[in-house]
Amino acid sequence: MIVQTTRFGKLEVAEDEIITMQTGLLGFSSARLYTLLDDEISSPFKWFQSLEMESLAFVTIDPQLVVSNYKIALAEEHMKKIEADSIDDLSVLVIVTMTKDIKDVTVNLQGPLVVNQKKRAGLQLVIPDGEYSTRYLLFGDKLKYDAQSEEEEKVESADKAPQAVAAG
């Protein structure tokens, strides 16, 4: 299948690279066919590109890279919907919301994408309020820690610097 996209131009997508999202995504229920685009430059991020709407593409990331203990509960109905026999066949991604300022980039941990790699079928889960956020800061704490460490290093350097003495 050859599709035109606004970000990547023409793409040739093999049949086994097409992911069918059973109920679409929240806000985009009519777009059900997607492909996952890997790019070494943007790794670990991946593009979840719609094959039906040329301008619809989402930046995604494996949630384990963001929150190491991230877990979702899959009901039997979810497994049936995506024809999954085992959780080993599944991969989970979360959508990244990009912003101008890197410290404000967030991920939607409350609405993960679950894909059966064998059957190429997926769905977007909605995890009940309270467990995870739709706007979890991707770099916020890390950037805050780095900035704080940098500031502490400057203070330590200033303390160790030779002191100027006024000649009199």
Describe the structure.
The structure is a single chain. The strands form two sheets. A seven-stranded mixed barrel has the order 3-4-5-6-7-9-10. The longest helix is centred in the last third of the chain and has 21 residues, at 140-160. By secondary structure, the chain is α+β, with helices and mostly antiparallel strands. It has two helices and eleven strands. It has a single domain, classed as Roll (BH3618-like), CATH 2.30.290.10.
What's this, in brief?
By secondary structure, the chain is of the alpha+beta class.
Uncertain residue segments? none
CATH top level class name: Mainly Beta
Mean pLDDT: 86
CATH superfamily label: BH3618-like
Strands of the widest sheet, in order across it, are 3-4-5-6-7-9-10
Radius of gyration: 22 Å
Helix content: 10-25%
Q: In terms of topology, how is this protein built?
A:
Elements: E1 2-5, E2 9-12, E3 19-21, E4 33-37, E5 46-50, E6 57-61, H1 76-81, E7 90-97, E8 106-107, E9 113-116, E10 121-124, E11 136-137, H2 140-160
Parallel strand pairs: 3-10
Antiparallel strand pairs: 1-2, 3-4, 4-5, 5-6, 6-7, 7-8, 7-9, 8-11, 9-10
Descriptive keywords:
single chain, 7-stranded mixed barrel, 168 residues, BH3618-like, alpha+beta
